[in-house]
C-alpha cells in the first residue's frame, strides 16, 4: 500500500527494492514520511528525474516494515533525522545521508557517484 | 520583445506564489524563479491551524494548492535554479542564471523568504541528522527516552520543547537571555512541565561526538564560564534570517538585512517590489506573507499600467 503522496515512484516492498538495485546501475532512494524535512527532498528528486535519465529515483515509506534494509543499513547507523536518503551504484550502497538535503547537496552526491 | 515578462517574481514561498496568482490572473505575463523549494518556509510547517477560512491543514497542502492556482492562471514557475546576476535598475529588469539562461521583465517582485537561523558553531553541520535537528515533528521519536537540549526562547522553541517531552526523558532549554520572548501561554506550558528545565543567559559553543552527538559545550554569558553537558540530541529554534544576501548593494536593506519597503511594497528601485519574510516587519506568518504578496502584485500591476 502506498503511503507517500509524491510524484517520485514509491517502492512498496523489500523485494522490489532489491530488484531495482540489482537491475539499475544508479539508484537514489529517499526513505521518509510526508514531513517538512522529507518533502523538499522528494521535490528535488522530481526535478532531477527529468534532467538525469541515467539515474533511477524512488521513494519509500520509512514506517513500512519493508524499509528495514534501508533503516538498518550499516551506512545509516547513527542516523537520527528523517529522511534517510541512500544511493546505490551497481547494487551496492555507496552513500547515505540523514535529514533534509538541498538541491546542491544532492547533486553533489549524484555528480560524485553517478557520472 | 516577446521574451520579456510583465512580472518576474524571485521566490516561490507564500508571498511569491500569492503574487504569482494575482498577477497571472490579471493577465500579466508572469514568471516565478525559485532557488529553493516551492512553498518556502510554509512547507516546513507541519500543521497550520490559524489560516482563516481553512481548518487545520499542512503547509505542504497549502503550498501545493497555491502552486496549482498560479499555474492555472498561466504563471510559469522555474524552480531549483541559481541566479548569478541581477540587473534591477534598468527599465527592463533582467537576471542571468548559473546555467546560462537569462530572463527579462518590466517589473520584479523580490520574495526570497527566509531560512532557519543556524547556530554556526563547530560540529553543527557534522551532526545534522545525527543528533542536531531543526524539526521536532520529524525527528522527535528518534530521541525516545533520551536527554535533549532545545536552543531558543521564542514561541517555536518553547512549543517544540513541550512537544519533545512526549518522547524525551528530559529537555533542557538553553537561551541567551534571562527571560523568554515567547507568549505567556507558551511560557506557562513550559513552566508546568516536569520534564523541562532551563539554562538561561547561556549559548551553545560546540557539538561533540563520534557517530552520533554525545555532548555540547555551553557558555554562561555573564561569567564566560564554559561547561560541557552530555546529551543525545539538540533541537535548534532560534528564528529565521532573511534570504537577502544577493541583494546587498542592489536594494536598500536595513541593519538586519531586511529589504526596506513602503506600504505598497515598493523598494528604492522603480518597478522593483518586495514581499514576505525578506522585508522589514515584525510579524512573520503565512497570512502576513500572503498579504504582502497581494499588495506587491497589485502595486506591480499599477506600476505597469503607468509605464506602458
What's the short story on this structure?
The complex is a heterodimer of chains A (115) and B (308). Chain A has helices at residues 14-23, 39-51, 68-71, 103-113; strands at residues 10-11, 26-32, 56-61, 84-89, 92-98.
General form of chain A: globular
Quaternary structure = heterodimer
The percentage helix of chain A is 25-40%
General form of chain B: elongated
Question: In percent, how helical is the residue content of chain B?
Answer: 10-25%
Radius of gyration of chain A: 12 Å
Structural class by secondary-structure content of chain A: alpha/beta
Please give the count of helices of chain A.
Answer: 4
Greatest interface and its residue counts? A-B, 23 and 27 residues
State the domain count of chain B.
Answer: 2
CATH topology description of chain A? Glutaredoxin
State Rg of chain B: 22 Å
**SSE string of chain B, helix = H, strand = E?**
EHEHEEEEEEHEHEHEEEEEEEH
Name the CATH superfamily assignment of the largest domain in chain B: FAD/NAD(P)-binding domain
**Model regions low in confidence, pLDDT < 50 over at least 5 residues of chain B:** none
CATH architectural grouping of the largest domain in chain B? 3-Layer(bba) Sandwich
> How far is the first residue's CA from the last residue's CA of chain A?
33 Å
Question: Averaged pLDDT of chain A, please?
Answer: 93
Strand-residue proportion of chain B: 25-35%
Question: Strands, helices and their partners?
Answer:
The complex is a heterodimer of chains A (115) and B (308).
Chain A lengths: L9 E2 L2 H10 L2 E7 L6 H13 L4 E6 L6 H4 L12 E6 L2 E7 L4 H11 L2
Parallel strand pairs in A: 1-3, 2-3
Antiparallel strand pairs in A: 2-4, 4-5
Chain B lengths: L3 E7 L3 H12 L4 E5 L24 H14 L3 E4 L3 E5 L5 E5 L4 E9 L3 E3 L15 E2 L2 H4 L7 E5 L3 H10 L5 E5 L9 H8 L4 E4 L2 E8 L3 E8 L4 E6 L2 E4 L3 E3 L29 E3 L11 H22 L1
Parallel strand pairs in B: 1-2, 1-6, 2-3, 6-17, 8-15, 9-10, 9-15, 10-11
Antiparallel strand pairs in B: 4-5, 5-6, 7-16, 12-13, 13-14
Helix pairs in contact in B: 1-2, 1-6, 4-5
